[in-house]
TrEMBL record:
RCK N-terminal domain mapped to chain residues: 10-125
GO molecular function (one): monoatomic cation transmembrane transporter activity
Residue stretches making up the RCK C-terminal domain: 142-223
Coiled-coil segments on the chain, per record: none
UniProt organism field: Luteococcus japonicus
GO term, biological process aspect, one: potassium ion transport
Gene3D superfamilies (alphabetical): NAD(P)-binding Rossmann-like Domain, Regulator of K+ conductance, C-terminal domain
PANTHER family (alphabetical): KTR SYSTEM POTASSIUM UPTAKE PROTEIN C (PTHR43833:SF7), POTASSIUM CHANNEL PROTEIN 2-RELATED-RELATED (PTHR43833)
Family matches, as InterPro entries: NAD(P)-bd_dom_sf (IPR036291), RCK_C (IPR006037), RCK_C_sf (IPR036721), RCK_N (IPR003148), Trk_Ktr_HKT_K-transport (IPR050721)
Name this protein carries in UniProt: Trk system potassium uptake protein TrkA
SUPFAM superfamilies reported in the protein's UniProt record: NAD(P)-binding Rossmann-fold domains (SSF51735), TrkA C-terminal domain-like (SSF116726)
Length: 223
C-alpha cells in the first residue's frame, strides 16, 4: 500500500475506472510524461495495468475514507471513466469535495452527463455518441474522420474530390467557393504536410479540412 507521501506529484493525474476508456486515458497520459494514479475496484483490471504504471490500486472510489487514505493532495486533475452511472456520479462528487480542481467524466447518456455537471464535473465526454456521430458523417458525406466543436465548427478528414485533382488549392478555389480551409494533406507513402496556396492536390489524397458543419458537408458531398 502506498502512503500519502509516496503517491502524487504536482503533475499527477488520477484515473478512476480502468476499463477500455480509463486504460486508454491512463496509458496516453503516461506516454505524455504525466504521473498517473489509476484506481479500480476490480483486481483483474488493476493487474492489467500494474506492469505499465507505477501507481495502480484496487480501491472503491465511492468510499471517501478509502480515498482519504490514499492521499490526493497533489492530484489536480482526475478522469472518471466508470461505466456504472451511480458510481461515477458519487465519485465525481467525492473528488470535488476533496478539492480536485479539474474533473473529466465519461457519460453514457445526456441525462447522465447533466447529472455529472450538476455534481461538479468540469468536463463531460460522450465517447459513444461522438463515435456514432463520426460514423454517420463518414457514411453520409464520405468523411473519413470528423470532430465537431460546440459552436458549429468542425474539423474533418476527407478524400480529395475530383474538382481539386491536379490543381493547386489557389486554383481550385476551395476556400472562396466552399468557405472551407484545407489545413493539411496526407498522401499515401508520404508524411503529413501543412497545406499552402500552391499545394497541388492529387487523386487519392486525404485532406484535413476545417469550417462550419454545413460547409464541410457541401464540400465533402462532391465525392
Amino acid at each position: 500500500m502506498f502512503s500519502k507521501q509516496q503517491i502524487g506529484s504536482p503533475d499527477t493525474a488520477l484515473v478512476v475506472g480502468l476499463g477500455r476508456f480509463g486504460r486508454a486515458a491512463a496509458r496516453r497520459l503516461n506516454e505524455l510524461g504525466v504521473e498517473v494514479l489509476g484506481i479500480d475496484r476490480d483486481p483483474a483490471l488493476v493487474s492489467r495495468l500494474a506492469l505499465e504504471l507505477d501507481n495502480v490500486l484496487v480501491l472503491d472510489a465511492t468510499d471517501a475514507e478509502a480515498l482519504d487514505q490514499v492521499g490526493l493532495g497533489h492530484v489536480t486533475v482526475a478522469v472518471v471513466g466508470m461505466a456504472h452511472v451511480e458510481a461515477s456520479v458519487v465519485t465525481v462528487l467525492k473528488l470535488k469535495e476533496f478539492g480536485i480542481k479539474e474533473v473529466w467524466a465519461k457519460a453514457s447518456s445526456q441525462t447522465h452527463g447533466e447529472i455529472l455537471h450538476r455534481v461538479g464535473a468540469d468536463h463531460v465526454i460522450y465517447p459513444e455518441a461522438a463515435a456514432g456521430l463520426r460514423v454517420a458523417h463518414a457514411v453520409a458525406r464520405h468523411l473519413i474522420d470528423y470532430f465537431e466543436f460546440e459552436d458549429g465548427f468542425a474539423i474533418a478528414r476527407v478524400t480529395a474530390p475530383p474538382s481539386t485533382w491536379e490543381r493547386s488549392l489557389a486554383e481550385s478555389g476551395v476556400r472562396t467557393e466552399y468557405r472551407v480551409t484545407v489545413v493539411g494533406v496526407k498522401r499515401e507513402g508520404e508524411p503529413f504536410h501543412y497545406a499552402e496556396p500552391d499545394t497541388v492536390i492529387r487523386e487519392g489524397d486525404h485532406l484535413i479540412i476545417s469550417g462550419t458543419k454545413p460547409d464541410l458537408d457541401r464540400f465533402a458531398s462532391q465525392g
